Amino acid sequence: MAMGMEMATWKFDANKKQIVLKSKRNKNFNGAMKIVFLSAEQMVLKKGADTYTYSRVEPDKIKQNNEKSGLAGLWSLSGTEYPCAFLKLDLPQDFALVRVAFGETDRASGSWIFSPKDQTIIFVGFSELLRGKVKLADLKKNSFSLQLADRTLQAKKVKPAPIERLTFKEDDFPEEPDEQSQARLPWKNFDGMVQFLSKVKAVRYSVGQLLPKLNVLAYPTKHLAKVQADVQKPSVRFTNLSVSEGNTSQYSEKVLNEMSSDEFHFFPLEDFWQYRVVGNEKLTVPAGTFDCTVVEAVDGDKKFKLWMINDKPGIYAKIIREETDPFGKVNYSAEELEQVDYLK
After folding, report:
1. Dihedral sign from CA coordinates of 254, 260, 263, 267
2. Which residue in 68, 115, 75 sits closest to 92, CA to CA?
């Protein structure tokens, strides 16, 4: 059995002291394997030039050791060659390894067995990174390291943090915003926006991507918006770049000028037809604490929550986006303002 799946059937041949295996999943299991050593704790089999060593598995003992290890929980991993990686160790013995890079998510799962005697973890499953017996070192309450053959992985405990989900839906909004909501929007002056942004060189955001099964935000990329504002024309250009592991790529460009000055209330986002102002909030993000107008909006199946900085038109303190596709997959991201670079 491997991860609950039958890998082969076996038959013991007492006369020849061998085990005969038959498998449809893996041809390497097929054939006779000679028993060269057998004890209460270990069995060694030989097939041709290959030798296989097996240790006896005791489910109750595994459960007890895993529970006492203090390893159960969610851990962030560094040293995996991915900008973001998480290891979830569940009780009694399931594990999940999730790695994120450039918007792509790699998942692997299996079982884990902790040995207090030699301070190791045996990983059984479909992970190329975590497989077989791995030495555990520097075990503390909130950290440990895994010593692989070619590298050492550092693990840090992930503290649970609330993630705000967007539960409203399109039917909750009027077809068009009422005059009261329009009046409460903070960015009303096009010339004032251009004047302010003419002093800004760039805006930087961290981008958190939700991993639903782990209920944690991964931050594999950052958003860099280069700003060019011309007071004379007047016009504003946002060049939006994605930054990850030293690689930068442009994914969009937003331009605002007099011809489009009637659609600037949410710039550099597109204007929304369905939105509502839900209040004012003093929000603290990595870039500081800001007085914000909070807006909820929908665009079809896409939902947004926006924290518009009242005295910085064109700059959001935070943006949450959430969408569930027809197959039930949730796409959720949270951007937080990290820094505003001003021209000198």
Report:
1. positive
2. 68
User: Does residue 162 lie in a domain region?
Assistant: no
Residues of the chain with pLDDT under 50: 1, 3
- For 42-66, how does the pLDDT look when each residue is reduced to its tens digit (9 = 90+)? 899 998 888 888 878 889 999 999 9
Residue 240, classed as helix, strand or coil, is: strand
Is residue 289 one of the residues assigned to a domain?
yes
Tokens describing residue 166: 């967007």
In a shared domain, residues 99 and 182: no
Number of domains in the chain: 3
Does a structural domain hold residue 3?
A: no
Q: Report d(CA 279, CA 260) in Å as an integer.
A: 27
Q: Which domain holds residue 33?
A: 9-55
User: Which of 158, 114, 111 lies closest to 136, judged by CA?
Assistant: 114
* Contact indicator for 290, 275 with CB cutoff of 8 Å: no
How far apart (Å, rounded) are the C-alpha atoms in residues 303 and 212?
A: 17
pLDDT tens digits along 181-236: 888 999 989 999 999 999 999 999 999 999 988 999 999 889 999 999 999 999 99
d(CA 297, CA 11): 64
Does residue 166 form part of some domain? no
